[in-house]
Amino acid sequence: MRLTYHPEAELELIEAARFYEKRVATLGAEFLDLVDESVRQIQGSPQGFRVVEGDVRLFIMKRFPFSIYFRIMLAEIRILAFKHHSRQPDYWRIRLSE
Question: Is-above-0.90 flag for pTM?
Answer without folding.
Answer: yes
